[in-house]
Structure formats: structure tokens, C-alpha cells
């Protein structure tokens, strides 16, 4: 690509912040709330018009499990958000802490309340457009684009919760992408069908992928719906007459390539309509009058960049249930790397579970996985922490992202006393505060 040199000109600058969080998904929301809770002047920058990321704008219809099959292990802010969400959904059993449905509009308000209650300021429709940094690995300012034009924002410490490690990568952090060939997990464009007979939906057998056979197999085999790419068809009742779908895969999408994402969104809308029509044909008792109400304004991205951090979490760490002296949370979600396009129709399709932990088992995530190796005043929280690719297939989901975000925000606030040096944080003090706020750190 050709280059263009910007003319030198001054930008308005806001340097009134202690901590700035880039990205308002699950990790960003808890990071901003936790930093503000500690008294840090905190700004949360979000590219869309709502907080919550994939659980709200992305329409993911259910939380991944919050338990290790014995107890809730994603505690603190994560547990509170889950239970507040459940309290606003009367059809959800009070003890359903695994694969719990999500009402996206309710969840938007809960994230609004969480961040503002603790004193964080949110800046919507504002895109991270550049990162200024010095030769010593210290971020000196973020350049943000919105209706006000370009503005520089400065803080002592920064949390990258963009999901793609944009802030860290643009500041010079080392990162990797995908597998050894650069191949990325497929995306999914979630959607909602309304006017569904939910009694029939609940008692007619459902439409989910199973290697043992179900309706989605017949739909794909029929050849009538070529826009349905494979057998991926997860769905949940998210409200009265409303079924949320996390269904279908879209390959060759790189969330750091805007043209790629644009093509993926267009393909995803075709997939959503095809699912509506197929459900109406194969499950008319539930879906005959179903209406495609909404597709996500965000594409469901499973992976892009992973930073190279002060510690690299490995599959062996996962499988041996390793604990670390600087653990900031536990994780028990299985390794869930979605299949390649070439694996459709083979025994590998849907067989994304490389390792499942047993009841009561979990592994630790050390604070060092959140620290980009070459940066001084930046933490990363969310799906782009420092891990093996297979482990990222486990740590990328929303419950663990909520916990990582709370830890990152708390640590960033503690780092303010050391001019933002994230390595100066006393991890014993960090873990003590996390426990005091309900974090699960056995």
C-alpha cells in the first residue's frame, strides 16, 4: 500500500486521566469499573454505541459456563453481572449458571450501570485511531477519532481491551496471529428470530449440532440452503418468543482487516436469513411464523492477535491445572478451537474440544500473561492475552474475560502510584483486593 504523510498539526489533548481503557467489551467494562472503584480517574473508549461487545452488540445468545461443575469460579464483578442478568430474565432457572441465556438489551443497561456506578466515564462512537509511544516502551498518548475529530488522550496506565490487541500492537508489542500458517478460527454472525412458539421450541427436539444426528444434519444434507455453511447451530431462548442463534461459520475473516470484516458481515446476513427459512421448513411447529429481527452489529470474532507477554500460558499449564503465585483468576472452560473450512463433513467438524477438564478442576491465569513483554504502562485483557493458540480457544470466552478485565483495571489503578509501571504492581496486594471483591483465587 502507498503511504501518505500527515501534515504536522496540533491536536486537542485531554490529560486528566489516570487510567484509560480501550474497548468496551466484557473485559473493558470490568477493567474500567475496577480501576474507577480504586479511585483512579478512568476513561473507557468504545467504538460502538453500547458497552458489552459480543454479549450485546454481537448478540451472542448465552454465557459460556461460569462453573467448574461444582461452584461458580468466575467471581467478583463477573458473578454479579451474571446474576443481575439472570434476575431480569424470569424464564431462566435461578441455578442455571452454565450456558445461561443473555438478554442483550438488559445486559447493555447492566454494563452502563456497572461502569457509571464506580465512576468511570464512557466515550461512545469513538475509535482508537493511533498510539503514540516512546523508545522505552511507554505509551504517551492515544489518538481517538469521533465526531469531535481527532483528540489525544493521555493517562499514566492503559488497558488494551480491544480484543485484537490494537493498542499494544500499535505501540510496538510483539504478537502472533492464528496457527503456524496464520490461519484464524472462523467467525460467526449471531442473530435473533422472534415470533417463535417457544413451547414448541422447547419440546420439539431443538435444532443444535450433534454428531449423533439432528435436524441441522438434514438441513445441510438437503442442499436447499447453500448459504448455511456447516452444522454449527447453537441457539437459546433469550426472551418471550425470541431465540438467539450463534450459528454458522464464516472463514477467511481477519478482524484487523476492515475489508475482510465487511465481506463477513454481508455473508453473515445471508446465513441468518437462510437459517430462518430452514427452521421454518424443518421445525414449522416452532418457527413457521418466525421473523428475522436482528443480526449483530458486530461480527463474532474468535481470534486475531495474541501478545507475547511476560509469561506464555501453555497447553501443558492448562492440562496439568497449574497454579501460579501471581494468578489473577481461574479458568475451567474447555479448549474450543473451531474447525477449518476443509474439515466440513469430516470427523473433525464440531470436534473442537481438544481437552475437557474434570469436575472441580481449573487452572490459573498469571498476571504476567496480561503484560506485553516490550511495554511498560500497558496491560492487555481479553482474548488477546499471552497464550498458546489452543489455550486461547479456552480463555477467549466472556466469563474469563470479565475476570481478566477486573484484574487488569485494578492493577492499572495500583500502577498509577508508580507512574503507570505495570511491573511495579504488588501481585500479593492485587490478589488480596480481588479476593476482597469476591474473586475466586483458591
Explain the layout of strands and helices:
Layout: E1 13-14, E2 19-22, H1 26-37, E3 42-45, H2 77-87, H3 104-118, E4 121-123, E5 127-133, E6 139-146, E7 149-153, E8 157-160, H4 166-170, E9 175-177, E10 191-194, H5 198-203, H6 215-222, E11 233-239, E12 242-247, H7 258-282, H8 284-287, E13 291-295, E14 305-307, H9 315-319, E15 327-331, E16 363-366, E17 378-380, H10 389-395, H11 398-415, H12 427-436
Parallel strand pairs: 1-7, 2-3, 2-8, 3-4, 8-17
Antiparallel strand pairs: 5-6, 6-7, 9-14, 10-12, 10-13, 11-12, 15-16
Helix pairs in contact: 1-3, 1-11, 11-12
Characterize the structure shown:
The chain is an alpha/beta fold and 442 residues long. The chain is built from twelve helices and 17 strands. A five-stranded parallel beta sheet has the order 4-3-2-8-17. The chain has a four-stranded mixed beta sheet with strand order 1-7-6-5. It has a four-stranded antiparallel beta sheet with strand order 11-12-10-13, covered by helices on one side. A hairpin with a 2-residue loop joins strand 6 and strand 7 (149-153). Helix 1 (26-37) runs parallel beside helix 3, helix 1 (26-37) runs parallel beside helix 11 and helix 11 (398-415) packs across helix 12 (427-436). The longest helix is centred in the middle third of the chain and has 25 residues, at 258-282. The chain is globular and about 60 Å long. It starts with 12 loop residues before the first strand and ends in a 6-residue tail after the last helix. The model has no long low-confidence stretch (mean pLDDT 95).
Amino acid at each position: 500500500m502507498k503511504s501518505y504523510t500527515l501534515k504536522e498539526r496540533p491536536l486537542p489533548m485531554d490529560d486528566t486521566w489516570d487510567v484509560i481503557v480501550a474497548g468496551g467489551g466484557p473485559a473493558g467494562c470490568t477493567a474500567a469499573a475496577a480501576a474507577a472503584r480504586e479511585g483512579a480517574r478512568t476513561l473507557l473508549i468504545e467504538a460502538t454505541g453500547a458497552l458489552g461487545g459480543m454479549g450485546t452488540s454481537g448478540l451472542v445468545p448465552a454465557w459460556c459456563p461460569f462453573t467448574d461443575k461444582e461452584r461458580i469460579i468466575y467471581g467478583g464483578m463477573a458473578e454479579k453481572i451474571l446474576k443481575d442478568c439472570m434476575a431480569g430474565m424470569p424464564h431462566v432457572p435461578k441455578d442455571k449458571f452454565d450456558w445461561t441465556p443473555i438478554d442483550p438489551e438488559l445486559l447493555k443497561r447492566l454494563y452502563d450501570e456497572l461502569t457509571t456506578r464506580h465512576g468511570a466515564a464512557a466515550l461512545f462512537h469513538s475509535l482508537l485511531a493511533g498510539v503514540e509511544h516512546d523508545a522505552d516502551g511507554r505509551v504517551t498518548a492515544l489518538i481517538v477519532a469521533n465526531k469531535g475529530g481527532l483528540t489525544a488522550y493521555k493517562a499514566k496506565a492503559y488497558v488494551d481491551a480491544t480484543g485484537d490487541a490494537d493498542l499494544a500492537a500499535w505501540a510496538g508489542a510483539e504478537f502472533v496471529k492464528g496457527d503456524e500458517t496464520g490461519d484464524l478460527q472462523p467467525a460467526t454472525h449471531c442473530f435473533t428470530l422472534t415470533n417463535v412458539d417457544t413451547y414448541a421450541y422447547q419440546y420439539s427436539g431443538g435444532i443444535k449440532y450433534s454428531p449423533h444426528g439432528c435436524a441441522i444434519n438434514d438441513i445441510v444434507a438437503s442442499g436447499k440452503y447453500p448459504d448455511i455453511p456447516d452444522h454449527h447451530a447453537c441457539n437459546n431462548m433469550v426472551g418471550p418468543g425470541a431465540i438467539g442463534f450463534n450459528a454458522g461459520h464464516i472463514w477467511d475473516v481477519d478482524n484487523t482487516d476492515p475489508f475482510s470484516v465487511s465481506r463477513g458481515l454481508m455473508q453473515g446476513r445471508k446465513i441468518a436469513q437462510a437459517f430462518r427459512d430452514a427452521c421454518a421448513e424443518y421445525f414449522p411447529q416452532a418457527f413457521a411464523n418466525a421473523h428475522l429481527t436482528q443480526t449483530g452489529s458486530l461480527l463474532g470474532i474468535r481470534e486475531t492477535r495474541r501478545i507475547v507477554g511476560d509469561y506464555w500460558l501453555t497447553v501443558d499449564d492448562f492440562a496439568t491445572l497449574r497454579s501460579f503465585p501471581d494468578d489473577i483468576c481461574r479458568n475451567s472452560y474447555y479448549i474450543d478451537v473451531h474447525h477449518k473450512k476443509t474439515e466440513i463433513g469430516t470427523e473433525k467438524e464440531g470436534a473442537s474440544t481438544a481437552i475437557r477438564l474434570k469436575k472441580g478442576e481449573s487452572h490459573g491465569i498469571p498476571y504476567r500473561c496480561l503484560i506485553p513483554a516490550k511495554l511498560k504502562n500497558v496491560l492487555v485483557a481479553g482474548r488477546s492475552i499471552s497464550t498458546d493458540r489452543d489455550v486461547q480457544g479456552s480463555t477467549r470466552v466472556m466469563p474469563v474475560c470479565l475476570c481478566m478485565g477486573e484484574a487488569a483495571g485494578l492493577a492499572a489503578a495500583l500502577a498509577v502510584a508508580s507512574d503507570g509501571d505495570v511491573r511495579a504492581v504488588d501481585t500479593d496486594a492485587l490478589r488480596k483486593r480481588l479476593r476482597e471483591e469476591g474473586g475466586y483465587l483458591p
